[in-house]
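Handoff note, outgoing to incoming analyst
You'll be picking up this chain. Sequence as last confirmed:
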Amino acid sequence: MTRTVPAPLPPDLFDPDCPVPTVPVLGGKKWAWRILRCLEGGPRRFSELRVPLVGITAKVLTESLRSMEQDGVLERTEFAENPPRVEYALTPLGRTLLGPMDAVCDWSRANLAELLAAREAFELAER
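Most recent structure output, in case you need it:
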């Protein structure tokens, strides 16, 4: 059986002008996708976000929201009321992430059993 050897990877495979490290893919930000999903239906207050985000601390939620605001995917609006009120909402840029998120969720649902089986097989082989 003859095996075809693929061509070596070129040293310029990744464009040096591509800002990949700075693009907010959000995949590495643990809570970002869940926050996006919470804001999909419209603006929410901080306390509203904490309800479905079980396990997140106030500090981590604050840091996540601030980071996502910095990336331009959500906006923070302060209302001059007493007591003060703040709401978070997706920006048009943030809304563009919903379609790709749906695709990844669909892929995950369709392939979850196979993924879990592969992990289990790998762990058994490692023992």
